[in-house]
Amino acid sequence: MGRQIAAEWIKARSLRSIWVLIAVAVLGLVAQALDGLITFRDASAGEQTLNALSGSSLTLLVVTLIGVLIAASEYGSKAIVSTYTVTPDRRRVIFAKAIVAVAIAVAVGVLSVPVARLVAAVYFGVGGSGELDASFGTAFLYGYGTILAFAGFAVIGLAIGVLSRSVAVGVAIVFVGIFVVDSLIGSVSVYSEYSLTSISAVLLDPDVHQSRFPRFGPAVALMLLYAGVLTALAVAVERRRDV
């Protein structure tokens, strides 16, 4: 399995678009922290801090697209034929791709809190007043939620890429299915507490309190459930397909 993971990492890092998306993901973290500080500049230091620490929705979208790209790019180039010839066990290939996607998402997620702290230090330094007011527990909770959200959505993106076998179709499904249809349905029905939109909102901002959103614990469980079910579905469908 280690060799398969290494092979999938080599494939992923050879794609220039992956590095472009990673750069955009990091910029999303910077933009989120700066937006949280500027938008709530008249609020208390504690409120400014929580908004600066909140995970970036833009970065969440980007890591989802990274998952799609890692999974679907081989189908367009037909390189998947060589991959399955060398490794006939398709589960192994998909799981290796998932591990690579999660590793990238986690790496970006780990930067979330440090980037927020750095942006806050620069912002308050230039402004001449204020400071980031966050305990270790608060920072850990926000970082943990953000990392889990990024990793879960990267896996969901990968499953969509495997099922669609097309980068373009996979990207369209992500935009329309997750960030449009899921959001609209969740806003008008009891499904809202179980929607991916609500789950991501809670994980990216653990202090958000809305009746239509799940609590943090259930949101973690739902994220793991959705990622696991979609991955299992992708594996089941892929094993029954011709190359």
The largest pleated sheet is described as:
none
Measured between the Cα atoms of the first and last residue, the distance is 21 Å
Structural class: mainly alpha
What letter string, H or E per element, gives the SSE order? HHHHHHHHHHH
* Radius of gyration over C-alpha positions, nearest whole angstrom: 19 Å
Question: What is the number of helices?
Answer: 11
Low-confidence stretches: none
Return the average pLDDT rounded to an integer. 88
Which SSEs are present, and which pair or pack?
Blueprint: H1 2-13, H2 16-39, H3 45-53, H4 57-77, H5 79-86, H6 90-110, H7 112-127, H8 136-164, H9 167-188, H10 196-204, H11 216-239
Helix pairs in contact: 1-6, 2-3, 2-4, 2-7, 4-6, 4-8, 4-9, 6-8, 8-9, 8-10, 8-11, 10-11
